[in-house]
């Protein structure tokens, strides 16, 4: 049990990130404006600049009196993330950004433009305490939780990049957000939920992206899934299962020693029943570790009557790791077995593979 307790301990106290508009609810934003001696409507103006026009520089906001702008900048728009490096591939349609936070901690986000949507994959923690052995982020441990301001800033930056025509050949709209970068989102619950509300609230309070276009992934923190269910927001839940049997999962996803496969799936079923949303099961295909036909069979039996969709993700190996992606023939057999059970399956494309697309790899490389 001691290991599990550790996972939920707040990492070492660091200087807190300054409070940002995105850390506050719309009511708190207005209350803060009044506290600063500004009329409440200024909070809406600030939110419009940030969430609708993706601007974070009050000096350029001509509808705010020039004398007021320094106060607004200090109390609502402190600079939370600074771009260190961007790497792109797929003709500019995939871009990974490495960000430095106020205390020097690095996190990353990835923007992926597809035919029908543009998605940003964001980090909710710096590092991760879940310790999955095949994951670069997991190897470094948890540095700290991100604030809602820091998570939201990655999304607003992505929305701006899309709007400015930096992703692909022409401007586009950021349409989807997935919490699948560094960190376990449900281990940083309140900032993640504040961020989700920033994403789905209509302008001016938020970005106005539909809840159904937001995916929150988890390794299976059952109390977190239950709490999320009660929020009454229809975000898609993704369960990072990676194997259907507890014996291997205890090793691949160590938190499994606390919440077993069946408990996690039951919590996901309840989430699906309550929200009417099909959930997804994420499965990193690791050669000769979890990609055997008998495991596909076990997974098929587990999922055949559930409202779940399987995403198989060819493992993007971390440098120096003994783990690697499955052989194509094993992957194809795995898909076929699942489909024979009537389970819907997608093999995720390996966007960003050549730019160290797996979570944590760019940040890890930068530290070397
Ligand atoms: S796979 Fe996800 S949950 Fe596991 S260590 Fe990596 S970031 Fe954390």
UniProtKB/TrEMBL annotation:
NCBIfam families per the record? rRNA_mod_RlmN
GO terms under cellular component: cytoplasm
User: What lineage is on file?
Assistant: unclassified sequences, metagenomes, ecological metagenomes
* UniProt-listed CDD domains: Radical_SAM
Output one GO MF annotation: 4 iron, 4 sulfur cluster binding
User: Which key words tag this protein in UniProt?
Assistant: 4Fe-4S, Cytoplasm, Disulfide bond, Iron, Iron-sulfur, Metal-binding, Methyltransferase, rRNA processing, S-adenosyl-L-methionine, Transferase
- Native species: freshwater metagenome
**According to its UniProt record, where is this protein located?**
Cytoplasm
One GO term (biological process): rRNA base methylation
Record-linked HAMAP family: RNA_methyltr_RlmN
What name goes with this protein? Answer: Unannotated protein
InterPro entries referenced in this protein's UniProt entry, alphabetically: Aldolase_TIM (IPR013785), Elp3/MiaA/NifB-like_rSAM (IPR006638), Methyltransferase_A (IPR040072), RNA_MTrfase_RlmN (IPR027492), rRNA_lsu_MTrfase_RlmN/Cfr (IPR004383), rSAM (IPR007197), rSAM_sf (IPR058240)
Tagged with keyword Transcription regulation: no
């Amino acid at each position: 049990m001691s290991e599990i307790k550790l996972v939920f301990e707040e990492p070492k106290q660091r200087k807190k990130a300054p409070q940002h508009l995105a850390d506050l609810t719309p009511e708190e934003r207005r209350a803060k404006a009044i506290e600063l001696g500004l009329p409440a409507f200024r909070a809406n103006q600030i939110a419009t600049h940030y969430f609708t026009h993706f601007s974070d520089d009050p000096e350029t906001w001509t509808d705010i009196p020039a004398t007021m702008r320094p106060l607004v900048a200090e109390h609502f728009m402190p600079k939370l993330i600074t771009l260190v490096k961007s790497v792109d591939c797929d003709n500019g349609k995939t871009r990974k950004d490495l960000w430095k936070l106020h205390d020097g901690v690095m996190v990353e986000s990835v923007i992926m433009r597809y035919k029908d949507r543009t998605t940003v994959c964001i980090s909710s923690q710096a590092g991760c305490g879940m310790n999955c052995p095949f994951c670069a982020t997991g190897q470094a441990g948890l540095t700290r939780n991100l604030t809602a301001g820091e998570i939201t800033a990655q999304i607003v930056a992505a929305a701006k990049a899309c709007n400015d025509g930096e992703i692909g050949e022409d401007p586009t709209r950021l349409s989807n957000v997935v919490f699948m970068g560094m960190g376990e989102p449900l281990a940083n619950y309140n900032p993640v939920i504040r961020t989700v509300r920033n994403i789905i609230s209509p302008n001016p309070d938020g970005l106005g992206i539909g809840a159904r276009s937001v995916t929150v992934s988890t390794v299976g923190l059952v109390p977190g899934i239950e709490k999320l269910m009660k929020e009454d927001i229809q975000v898609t839940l993704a369960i990072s299962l990676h194997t259907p049997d507890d014996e291997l999962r205890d090793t691949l996803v160590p938190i499994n020693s606390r919440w077993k496969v069946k408990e996690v799936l039951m919590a996901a079923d309840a989430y699906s029943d309550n929200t009417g949303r099909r959930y997804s099961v994420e499965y990193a295909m690791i050669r000769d570790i979890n990609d055997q036909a008998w495991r596909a069979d076990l997974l098929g039996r587990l999922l055949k009557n559930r409202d779940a969709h399987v995403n198989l993700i060819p493992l993007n190996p971390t440098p120096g790791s003994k783990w690697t992606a499955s052989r194509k023939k094993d992957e194809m057999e795995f898909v076929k077995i699942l489909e024979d059970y009537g389970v819907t399956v997608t093999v995720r494309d390996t966007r960003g593979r050549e730019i160290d697309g797996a979570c944590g790899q760019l940040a890890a490389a930068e530290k070397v």
